[in-house]
Amino acid sequence: MKLPSSEYDDNGNRIDAHYVTNRIRTAKYTILNFIPKNLFEQFRNVANLYFLLLVVLQCIPIFGVVEPAVSALPLMAIILITAIKDGIEDHRRSQSDNRVNNAKTLKLANWKNVNVEDTADSRWHGLHIILGFFCTLAGLENKYAHTYRLSITRKKPAKEPPALRRSASISRRSLTAESTSTEHGPNHSIYPVSSLHSHPNPNRSHSGSRGLLNTVRQRSDTFRSELSQIFKPPNIKRQTYRPGSIPHSVLYRTVTSETGADGRTMRRMSTVHPGDVRCADLEPGEPPAPKCNVFWQEVRWQDLSAGDYVMLRNDEDVPADIIILSTSETDNMCFIETQSLDGETNLKTRQGLDATAGIRTVHDCERARFYIESEPPHANLYQYNAALRWDIVQPEDNETTVSHQKTEAVTYNNILLRGSVLRNTQWVIGVVVFTGAETKIMLNSGRTPSKRSKIQKETNPHVIANFVILAIMSIISCVLDSVYFTSSGSMPYFDYNIRGDNAHYDGFLTFWVSLILYQNIVPISLYISVEIVKTVAAYFIYCDIEMYHEPTDTPCIAKTWNISDDLGQIEYIFSDKTGTLTQNVMEFRKCTINGVSYGVGTTEASLARDKLENINQTDEKMAADDSDFNEAHRAAVMKDMYEQQQAMFENKHVGPKPTFADLKFFGDLKADNEHSNAMIHFMSALALCHTVIAECTDDNNPEFINYRATSPDEAALVGTARDLGFTYIGRDANILTVEIMGEIKTFELLETLEFSSSRKRMSVILKPQDSDRILLLCKGADSVILERLTTDFGYQVELEKSQKQLQETTIEHLEAYATEGLRTLCLAYRFISPEEYKVWHKNYQEACACIYNREEKIDEVCEEIENNMLLMGGTAIEDRLQDGVPETIAELSQSGIRLWVLTGDKTETAINIGFSCNLITNDMKMIILKADTREDTKVQLEQAVATAYDPKATKKLALVIDGTTLKYALEPTLQTLLLRVGMKCNSVVCCRVSPKQKAQVVAMVKKGLKVMTLAIGDGANDVSMIQEANVGIGISGVEGRQAVMASDYAIAQFRFLRKLLLVHGRWSYLRIAEMVMGFFYKNIVWTLILFWFQIFCQFTGSMIFDYSLVTLYNLIFTSLPIIFLGIWDQDLPSHISLCYPELYRMGLRNDKFKVWRFWATTFDSIFQSAVCFFFPYMLLVAGAPDSAGYISNGVYETGTIMSSIAVIVANLFVGLSLYSFTWIQIGIISLSILVYYAFVGIYAQFNTFIFAGQDRLFAVGYYWLILILTVFGSFFPRAVALYYIHIYHPYDNDIVREIELVQKDGRYERKRRESNSQTEHGAD
After folding, report:
1. What is the β-pairing status of strands 1031-1035 and 1049-1051?
2. Of 144, 151, 165, 794, which residue has the fewest beta carbons closer than 10 angstroms?
């Protein structure tokens, strides 16, 4: 099909001819741009820019730096280490990209895709290829790179994949489309159609060919294959043309060759074509032209373009976003798995377009003429709007044909997204609509919002303070140097042509020299060291076996490495309920049918209700109830119940683990009365109103039918209907087959009105095959269904009376179910007249054909039909709590963390789940906010504030607020009131909350209270909440992995949050806090020694240390101990930490990183630097030569002694900060000190002017005496201060350490002794 003229400009050139290529690139770097781009990324860090400036300054001779190359070593080392880390990470990404881009798929070869501009004949084609080569190296994806790759592809011979050539007979048997050779009337002709996989063969015999719809092989592992032989549709015949009646197919653009406009049969088409006839111009069903050589070619994914035909085979990945044209199934459906997109393993159905269902061969693809109007690419996985259009033309010899255009709507149900996998379907033919970066999976692969930890943010002011100190020191030095410029002294004798000509100029030079001299006060290695520590912490979290979930083989995965210390400072946790606190494995427990409640048994929430009512567990009645509903009794009830079922009818499809039990169910069902009919209708509705897929997965039990559903609720409903004898067998085309009490019945599915979060319901419109009545079945949330029930009963007084009574009874039962913590749904139905359905269906089709606002228009049309319904009853499903949830919530509450649960459940359900999981306890006073208007919300909030701030109140508070009230409470005028109430409540439960409201609640608390927040969820509706919080945690559960993909940490169970926060989070906070303080300490000590020396050299910026020592101080001599403290130090072992959740409050109070601690550390380091300078200076200034005649009080000799003391003091400071003295810590501190002495000993052997022979300084006892005195003098005040704090103002962990490690009489020790005592007692 030629492009329309609108696609060309006035000069005949294509407008916007380039589509995005299908090549993806997640790697940041290429061979060409790695060095410049990585350097740019690193020098965006202000600290790196600062040190680069210093390196440049040191290269200027006037500043007197003898070895400027040595000064660049620290910066070069940090940049090199970072570059290597980035390069390794990016190389892995690049390897992953190459594996994906080079994957194979089948593309239609030797036909022209008009969407791809062919520049092969252009005069600039060669230049474009050259430019494309360099663009490829640079990682640019543009039209030149695409031209370059196309030129490479063209050079390769087009050939079929070996798998397709291996056995033509097998390929034809499964995937051919040949006409049937049967006895027809004289006016009928049958023509062969070529294989999908092989080259056409004009000489092929047609006598053994078979009809297309009869030969497409059905899936052998589902019930659809069995039903296909029963419900096979009749062969499609060519229609006589009447206005509007040409077959709805893109293959028919005019009156067919078999029928004329007047209905008369035309002559048989010739099988011999002129040599110049193109195969694409022939009629559907005609044999291929002799020179036609289109076929399916195996190509790389990256070689696909928008508009290409592709064919997917079973179990193949989808290479791009593809609109489904046709499938191997008779109903033009296919099945996909979307685990890579959203993590859901349940199969989903996708439907091919009706207009393209006839495309079965490569020649059909070539002969089809259509175009697609598509919306722009966007990231919404569940929305797509487009329209497929094709023209019906008027032949010159047929005046009765009217030229017009046909249209078919394309929705997300007709598209296969890149990342999904084709399942249980032989093949699918489709057309590529979005490629590469425009596919939905790539649009959703954006990085999680950049997050910085709280300590990192608080460190920046401290770094700025160091810059201020640096500036003050430099200004003091330059001012005093100007003052001393004209004074007497030895300064002029050490000029070396680096002094200024006057005092002002000399002071100016001294300022820059001082920046170089005091550069170490800014910790250049701090950031890279913290990154190393946090990376190792993420690895330790990953390796923690206690957070590994063996059933799903899922460890705890840290996806954002730089916020591990935030895990130790969380004040508010916002949690989803379903799938997060609960298992999201639904069990059908109870139902109400025609006003009668069925189902026995107790739930976890029922026990919580008993706590609420303060029922004594030793009460005889309670004990009797417990014995009635224990598991053994429940099993006995089920056994008797299913024996009754088998006596009534044989049910071969009962599942292995039924969940519904009630002895009276089959007794009532057996009675032939009005109520039993209502029960049959109710259970039949459960078996019919759904979108599940029926499968036979158990080879040992072929009668067992397993259901795959997008929602576990739906699978539970259909599964229970199956167990009770109302079995959904499967679907063939639009025929639903069910087995109702042993009798097979079929229904024609007219429409499915699917569930959405806004509709909160789903419906099916059916027509029984043994009746002409049209039936609508609807199920959904009780609030949605009840408001759509009929209120106009006309003259049917009895029906009106029974329905009103049924509504009252059903509401009572549903409220009772909700009180037990069960999830409730309502079922309703109505009959539709054929006339009403015809009008409605036309409107529905028009809404489906809309390109813009399609979902809104479809919802409006659905509203028209989903009304005036009659109530049938309701269901109640239990979603059991995950293991360890109550214990985890109790300990988190004990630690000072406040938990807010944001759920979509009803208020009663949420309250009882809150009791069952210890979120709400008996000693709490509940504040329930339930308003309908803004004014009522304000009144209730003001009353709640008064209650919360009542000085006489002693009980803890729990707040429960429903969705309507929350909507008004989140408005700016009422947010403050809600925050005031929330601050005083230990637990908050928000009910009927939308995904948007979840994010709004998190943002309100995070910004309004300036606190650290954590959000945890498992579904796509939790993504916005997870990304809004300071720390987002995704649970890899039943609802998919979208929450995991958007999270910072991924865990398998809620209970793992306990150790993640109370152990790893607390450890990380303590380690990072001590580590940052240690960095500032050691840098200030070293730098201030140089500053004190300026007093004695007239502030000229002279150096008392050899410059190699300055360079290596942070890089080698003092780096490892502080890093190992951040990696290994533990104040308490994990098992003891878990016994004291209150220890977590240290992070909440920020005990270890308060501003006063920074300034205390700063003043301590200033004091110690003075001791490290003035003690050796005063002890050496008048010292005598040693026995060999060498002096130790020269400038550089004194500097070397001071540097050794500074290195020892800095490393011993780490030792004083340690909680656990392990051999690793002691060894690394000792090694760092020994490395210093080894370096001095080796470096002193070189004949340098100022350093040769200085190793002899360490050979005299006087040096070691000075060392001991100086170290003692440095740490004495600090040791006294630490002792005082430990005795009179101890931290929480100091107290616990003394109880557990010294007195051995704490919680852990008592728990251990009790466990040992019980073990010994059991042995006796």
Report:
1. parallel
2. 794
Question: With contact defined as beta carbons under 8 Å apart, do 521 and 1085 qualify?
Answer: no
Is residue 799 within a helix (H) or strand (E), and if so which, with residue range? helix 797-819
Instruction: Note the pLDDT tens digit of each residue in 724-768.
Output: 999 999 888 788 999 999 899 999 999 988 887 678 889 999 999
Q: Are 696 and 705 in contact (CB under 8 A)?
A: yes
Q: How far is CA 694 from the centre of its chain?
A: 29
Q: Cα separation of 573 and 468, whole Å? A: 38
Catalytic residues: 576
Listed as own residue / partner, the contacts of 653-659 with beta carbons closer than 8 Å and 24 or more positions apart are 653/703, 653/704, 653/705, 653/722, 653/723, 653/727, 653/739, 654/722, 654/723, 655/704, 655/719, 655/722, 655/723, 656/704, 658/720, 658/723, 659/587, 659/588, 659/589, 659/716, 659/720
Across the chain, mean pLDDT equals 79
Residue listed under structure tokens 């106009």: 792
Closest CA to 1228 of 1115, 1084, 1118: 1118
pTM of model > 0.70: yes
Query: What is the tens place of the pLDDT at every residue in 686-733?
Result: 999 988 888 876 667 778 888 887 777 888 999 999 999 999 998 887
* Sheet of 726-732, strands arranged across: 596-598, 582-593, 870-881, 823-832, 774-780, 761-768, 743-753, 735-740, 726-732
Give the β-pairing of 572-575 and 1013-1017: parallel
Cβ atoms of 975 and 983 within 8 Å: the answer is no
- Based on its alpha-carbon atoms, the radius of gyration of the chain, rounded to whole angstroms, reads 39
1040 pLDDT band (50/70/90 cuts)?
low
- Angle (CA) 791-792-794 rounded to 5° is 145
**End-to-end CA gap in the chain:** 90
Question: Residue 296 in contact with residue 362, Cβ under 8 Å?
Answer: yes
Contact between 876 and 1046 (Cβ < 8 Å): no
Neighbour-count burial of 199, counting CB atoms closer than 10 A to its CB (0-12 exposed, 13-18 middle, 19+ buried): middle
Q: Let me know if 905 is exposed, middle or buried by CB neighbors in 10 A (0-12, 13-18, 19+).
A: buried
Residue 860 and residue 44: Cα distance in Å, rounded?
52
Asked if 1023 contacts 1042 with a C-beta cutoff of 8 angstroms, the reply is yes
pLDDT value at residue 1068? 94
Distance CA 1258, CA 1272 (A): 18
| Furthest C-alpha separation in the chain | 130
CA distance 1094 to 1089: 9
